[in-house]
Amino acid sequence: MGTEAPFLPELLAPAGDPEKLATALHFGADAVYVGGEKFGLRAMAGNFSLPQLAAARRLTRERGKKLYLTLNAYLAPEDFSDLANYIEELRPLNLDAYIVSDPGVIDLIRRIDPQRTLHLSTQANTTNAAAAGFWQKNGIRRVNLGRELTLSQIRTIRGGCDLELEAFVHGALCMAYSGRCLLSAALTGRSANRGACAHPCRWRYALLEETRPGEYFPIAEDETGAYILNSRDLCLIDYLPALVGAGIDCLKIEGRMKSRYYVAVVTDVYRNALDHLQDARDQHPRCAWRHELETVSHRPYGTGFLFPEAGGQIHPYFSSYIRSHDFVGVLVENSGGSPLVQVRNRFFPGEKLELVAPGLERLPFTPAEIRTAEGDSLVVAQPNAVVAIDLPIQGKPGDLLRRKKPTGS
Ligand code: SF4
User: Fold this and answer.
1) Given a cut of 80, is residue 175 above it in pLDDT?
2) pLDDT of residue 43
3) CATH, residue 341
């Protein structure tokens, strides 16, 4: 009798634009979530026009993957006629699901496009099985659980409802109740719940006594100042078996505003970790996962509220973004002649680079020469140029190139 493969949750990756969508698929996402040009909570991400959504739908379907569209803003009364038109325009695209939060939006979609699968966003703050059951009765197929929950609470919710459960495993956290925050709207006029957060929680704050304008008293947590509202980035790479055991159906990576390199590496690491779950006897390359997650731009990592015994791992001791590597280019063609790379950050002949390919393939190499596509030698590869270089192996279009940052930079 064969051994049944364990259930593996869906790996859901973010894509702020079509290039990032292709990258997420190349590096192993089962499903990708994107924003349209309206109502999607990431006003600053590239976002997808209707034709781009149609192309994205074709690409994901060809690969046997899923495409979800975020419609998770909380709307003002005057938005509804525009939303109704948008839902009509979206309907023929037949996307796999919409990610929603506002009950008014849910109601409108159910009236205009009743067959559409709906997933509830983390903005809706679902933190118990009764709430999950309520949403299920109102047409929701999947709920993204509030990031405030502990692992044991997630287990309890799983035991009390039978709709699909999704949980964030990686990325930025809000210093607010799963994204509900008025700080940005109050300080800058840019509303977080309409996709335009200016991230004032990450700013540096000082104390001012009102009769002494211009005299700022530092509030010092450390030599870099005070970041009293700042949060760590979530990283649950070491806890996937626990989440799967708790009955999570989908693991979600945060970051539609993040770079193509970030999407590639984080998706690749979680794909690899999930694939290793299929074989309990496997040696899990935990050090490689951790190392890779340090190469992308992030704030100090923590486990959020998942383990109460560890205390809420939310507030970091320092605030800066850190990363160990720079993204330098994308392999765009490798079919016969010299491989062609689209340059993102300049690099020089003789620099040590690494090819980043799916399955945690990382191949260091040093291009002795950089050429134009026509074969002329270059002294530097400039951003946006397409250049020819020799690779140590047969890389595939969509693989990335990176360079280690000098220590201390
Ligand atoms: S200001 Fe900070 S806590 Fe508030 S929504 Fe923006 S990122 Fe989240």
Assistant:
1) no
2) 57
3) 2.40.30.10
